[in-house]
Design brief:
ABC_transporter-like_CS, ATP-binding, ATP binding, binds iron/sulfur cluster, binds adenosine-5'-triphosphate, single chain, transport, binds magnesium ion, 13 helices, globular, nucleotide-binding
Length: about 425
Amino acid sequence: MSETMEPLLKVTGLQKHFPIRKGLLQRQTGAVKAVDGLDFEVYPGETLGVVGESGCGKSTMGRLITRLLEPTGGKIEFQGTDISHLGVSGMRPLRRDVQMIFQDPYGSLNPRHTVGSIVSAPFKLQGVEPEGGVKKEVQRLLGLVGLNPEHYNRYPHEFSGGQRQRIGIARALALKPKLVVADEPVSALDVSIQAQVVNLLDDLQEELGLTYVFIAHDLSVVRHVSDRIAVMYLGKIVELADRKSLYESPMHPYTRALMSAVPIPDPRRKGVKGERILLKGDVPSPIAPPSGCRFHTRCWKATEVCKTQEPPLLELRPGQRVACHHPEDAEGVTIPSARESVEVTITKSPESPKAPEAPEPVEAPEPEAPASAEATESTEQADAPKSGEPAEATESPEAPEGAESVSKPAAKDDAAGE
Ligand SMILES: Nc1ncnc2c1ncn2[C@@H]1O[C@H](COP(=O)(O)OP(=O)(O)OP(=O)(O)O)[C@@H](O)[C@H]1O
Ligand code: SF4
Ligand SMILES: [Mg+2]
């Protein structure tokens, strides 16, 4: 992967605002700003990990770039073609190239269909006749994802969670896609099988030359699979960097907080007291996100400028883009001119997140605007999946949960090992 090559996917200013309607006349009274201005690229053959707390817009972003949702604003280019507002027929050829693996292997497979008909559905939808026939190809795909090809006539309930996710993967790969968006593909699975499914995705990427956008709740899950990682907060990317830079010197306070919750897999470093940053409160409501920097209500470094001026996402180190007025470990970093108009305070963190001697846990202040799950529940489910979506795919939007995910250890890291 090289940033000098043409991106497979380029996203510019991407937005999705779900309208909130009330009353008899269903007047729009507001909007859930689930995705509110994303800029990123995905290069051929790479895995872009996307992390962030529950409700920050990861799934919405995944459904926008696979065009299961219509964007409110911005641009999505796939292989140089603008696909932002393509209709069903315009998207048909593209459905072969862009596929999605869903979080819930139980809800995303139709229980009344056999595995054979689930995995062969993409061929039927696209009118494709593979060499040797559909059945032979489906059995080959089942073998490819580690399932018994003889189980062609079985139903989803006869499989375990991990096996069901393999069925979902086989379906996603049926048409030899170029880009696969995997939305939390292992978070509904038992810890013991998470690593198996992640390794399978890894092997398939190498074998089939796939490009992944891999969505996860926390950084430990994407650690082993991602080349670059985008950290999202309340509908925006706050940091985007290659894996090494992000893990070794995160620059955004939110990334640092997420990082502090990642378990240390190296046994030699076990027992070393690690820095813990406990984020208090929930992610604020995306209906009325905080002014200025959206993270200011929970950020321990926030100053006046953070409350009024939104920090742009700028490349502060080669390959490391950060949206923060007071980035971490930024000594010696030249701040681009766009940043010079605002007051900048460069602070070096007391210890890097991986440093052995850690400061006392940092507690962020209470958020000013706690998330309102009720408010989002009352919103109109305006954008049902478009007809190009696989017939079995049923996924409902999830309401925001608490912010505890930052301190929740993710088991995959341990399971996968270093
Ligand atoms: N169809 C919809 N209508 C209204 N609001 C929605 C819809 N889909 C998502 N939302 C809201 O948009 C916000 C982002 O949701 P999204 O599912 O993208 O978050 P997420 O980061 O994937 O969360 P999780 O980690 O829980 O899966 C949430 O506040 C959610 O309630
Ligand atoms: S801009 Fe300010 S509030 Fe936002 S992350 Fe940076 S220091 Fe914290
Ligand atoms: Mg999600």
